[in-house]
Amino acid sequence: MDLISRNELHELMEDRGEVSLSLFMPTHRTGDTQQDPIRLKNLIKDAEDKLTRQGLGEDRIRKFLRPLRELLDDNSIWQYMSDGLAIFRTDERFDLYRLPISFKERVIVKDRFYIKPLLPIFTNNGHFYVLALSQNQIRLLKGTRHTVNEVEIHDSVPQGIEDIMVDKRLPEGFQFHTGASNKGGQIRAAVFHGHGEEYDQKDEIRKYLREVDRGLVEIIQGGQLPMVLTGVEEIQAIYKQVNSYPLIMNDGVNGNPDRLSNQELHQKAWDIIEPYYTSEMNRDLERFNELHGLGRTTVHIEEALPAAVQGRIESLFFAPEEHIWGSYDDGGNVTINSSSETTGSGVDLMDTLVVKTLSGGGTVYAVEPGDIPNGSQLAGILRY
Questions:
Q1: Which of 127, 163, 168 has the alpha carbon at shortest distance from 146?
Q2: DSSP characters over 310-363
Q3: Taking the domains of the chain in order of start, what are their residue ranges?
Q4: 307, 343, 344, 351: which has the fewest C-beta neighbours closer than 10 Å?
Q5: Mean pLDDT within 268-287
Q6: pTM recorded for the entire structure
Q7: Please, what CATH class does the domain formed by 128-276 belong to?
């Protein structure tokens, strides 16, 4: 899986080429992956036909499509696919993204890239942390609805209870053994054996988790993202006692996280996080209604787009299937005209509004048309 940042999205939207090709298709992570190159081959033929109709010569088309055709025999690409493939091509650039959303097949040739299928990655897409706790290792993940990445913490956080036991002086005759979870999911805490005795060392686990918390605070200072804990219930409970991070979710993912991949942890954590962000959206809807009529909201593209360019939109509601075609200039002047996603030189101003809002640090919610406040095509809360 590849990542695409807000800056890259903005760059794609701003790029202008005499001929800009945008290609989208669904792909398979596993299973019938052999069908994916065949699907791409058919879409390349579609692209060739569109480029021919644009008046490009045979040699230029061959050179233009060469990077796409080279993918057909590149096994390394197809072995590591995600749910969808997005390709952007001009004479000067070639960008490929394997992304965790399934696209409809689409080939568009215009004077700029078509970026609307990418927007779901950035909308209703709350960021959050997942902290996987066990006595053997610690993992910190940072995710969104569609993506997850592991944060490097090894230099700051003990990677097992043994890390803090290296210099500990034990009573004579005792030996230390790493803890684990038993079949019932309860902690079999790190224990010491000596003279036939065995006793629970939850105090040692508490010290260990306190060191974990201390290291994490250095990594995510001032963090405002919610965090989901994963681990056996007792170790989660102990961590909450020593934790200093302000946004730990009440519910966690129970069980031994060492047995789960980052992707599995992410999916289980998102099930916990999603209601949190749904409530956040509802709070912003209420704020819009409270502020409407007080000069702190906008429902018109002619006002909203200049505000987004200036970084003034705090929250934006839009319907992904709504289009407003036209143009705008650096002075913030907006002109609405008729066009379509496949013809004409106009842009979808709604897409531009979304990308500019994201670039300005705003939050974007994709909703059904009937759910937009005031019955409009868009609704934005202004910072000032």
A1: 127
A2: TT-EEEEEE-TT---EEEE-TT--EEE----SSSSS-EEHHHHHHHHHHHTT-E
A3: 6-121, 128-276, 292-382
A4: 343
A5: 93
A6: 0.69
A7: alpha beta
